[in-house]
What does this fold into?
Amino acid sequence: DAGVIQSPRHEVTEMGQEVTLRCKPISGHNSLFWYRQTMMRGLELLIYFNNNVPIDDSGMPEDRFSAKMPNASFSTLKIQPSEPRDSAVYFCASSIRGPSTEQYFGPGTRLTVT
Amino acid sequence: QQQVKQSPQSLIVQKGGISIINCAYENTAFDYFPWYQQFPGKGPALLIAIRPDVSEKKEGRFTISFNKSAKQFSLHIMDSQPGDSATYFCAASKGDDKIIFGKGTRLHILP
It folds into this structure.
């Protein structure tokens, strides 16, 4: 298996622009997670899905962030409009079932908003 | 009550020594305690995990010690090697509730 696939790996954009991050989970995994990692705040869970349904989005910072999972093999995290404080590494992870089983992380997307 | 407090923030150990990282939690309902290892430029990867029905779990040089009454758990790395240099995260969760990560410990093993 190729593991969790994320794209792009790096994104540099200007403040105010829309940013879309993409994730393909491991086939057969029923849960998908979006995390944000910064030096100051560490690793934060933004949202997670079970069977394509959002279960907990309490970590989504504000209305500028949205996430979708239209099918079992694809998810997006969108930031509109982007701000410099959104600069971070965004990870997607998947697991067979739920947060309490092994999560497999993708390589991450490094986002820089200037 | 949802926090997981991890210490130390950074740790330097001589090659061959024992590395010890500690975590404390408050929510007694947590029933899954994993440790993740992250190398620079990579995503975290599960290293070892424990559930509260056992007090210790060992996998190779890595051991989790779990103290339910104290609400603490720790990671011990025996015979630490330079290749163990990474950031380590403890975490805790309950069922389908979201997992809570500690802030991480940067471990550096001196050659």
User: Anything to note?
Assistant: Residues 62 and 77 of chain B are 5 Å apart (CA to CA). The interface with chain A takes residues 31-32, 34, 41-46, 49, 89, 93-99, 101-104 of chain B (CB under 8 Å). The longest strand of chain B covers residues 19-25. The two ends of chain B are 39 Å apart (CA to CA).
